[in-house]
Amino acid sequence: MDTSDRRTYLKATGSAAAALALAGCTGGGSGDNGDGDGDSGSGGESGGDVTTITPGTAPGFPPFEMKESGELVGFDIDLLAAVVAEADGYELGSWQEYSFDSLIPALTSDKIDVVAAGMSINDDRDETIDFTDPYYNADQAILVRESGDFSPAELADLSGHKVGSQSGTTGETVSKNLVEEGTLKESSYNSYDSYVFAVQDLENGNIDAIILDLPVAQTFADQRPVSIAFTYETGERYGFGVREGDDDLQSALNEGLAAVRDSGQYEELRNEWFGGSDE
């Protein structure tokens, strides 16, 4: 599948939004436990010497996870499949889709066994779940309309403007910090279930800027009339999430990730989904 085919999703605004609304789109930690495509009654199903694990994700975070013609695709989807293929004693079951802030509750309630959703490793999440070794580095970006006259150069420049981010993400944390410190009015902040909806509002002039993960911002900027005003360094690292105490699965995924890197497959997937950009 070439890059232009993969990213048709970003151009099909209306149909994408409808599909995401039905599927339960995308953002991290707490929140109501929305149902995915159906409870899998997970907890890892054992078949002989092989244990089937149920993965969970949140579409609407291109190019990490998104829907194209009803199919779940993305870097995280391909990477986890490759990692589990190298993990001794495990196989990958059917993907379950949730809103981003319902993924951790789904994991802790045994509805899924692993989270692959561009989830940043942080102390708050680490109190509830465990993470594999990091597999991607990302900072935050500030996205604005390409044809607009708003060109912020730092976070302080967002004062007096309407800002959006996705619920439960690092972008929302940054936005809420700006509200707490008085840079942003609370009424000027808009939270979204998916960055797809946030970008639609940005294009339509309902908000002036979006705070989101840099690689996702770059994907939107490649396909939509939006651009990155500046990057805000946060030193984020993405990891696959597993239940606390699931040491065997955590170790197997870490070994699988190392094998995928050593074989060169990681670089191939990165080049496919990010055009060879550095992680």
Automatic annotation (TrEMBL):
<keyword id="KW-0732">Signal</keyword>
<dbReference type="InterPro" id="IPR006311">
    <property type="entry name" value="TAT_signal"/>
</dbReference>
<dbReference type="GO" id="GO:0016020">
    <property type="term" value="C:membrane"/>
</dbReference>
<feature type="domain" description="Ionotropic glutamate receptor C-terminal">
    <location>
        <begin position="52"/>
        <end position="276"/>
    </location>
</feature>
<feature type="domain" description="Solute-binding protein family 3/N-terminal">
    <location>
        <begin position="52"/>
        <end position="277"/>
    </location>
</feature>
<dbReference type="Pfam" id="PF00497">
    <property type="entry name" value="SBP_bac_3"/>
</dbReference>
<dbReference type="InterPro" id="IPR001320">
    <property type="entry name" value="Iontro_rcpt_C"/>
</dbReference>
<feature type="compositionally biased region" description="Gly residues">
    <location>
        <begin position="27"/>
        <end position="47"/>
    </location>
</feature>
<protein>
    <submittedName>
        <fullName>Basic amino acid ABC transporter substrate-binding protein</fullName>
    </submittedName>
</protein>
<feature type="region of interest" description="Disordered">
    <location>
        <begin position="27"/>
        <end position="60"/>
    </location>
</feature>
<dbReference type="InterPro" id="IPR001638">
    <property type="entry name" value="Solute-binding_3/MltF_N"/>
</dbReference>
<dbReference type="InterPro" id="IPR018313">
    <property type="entry name" value="SBP_3_CS"/>
</dbReference>
<dbReference type="GO" id="GO:0015276">
    <property type="term" value="F:ligand-gated monoatomic ion channel activity"/>
</dbReference>
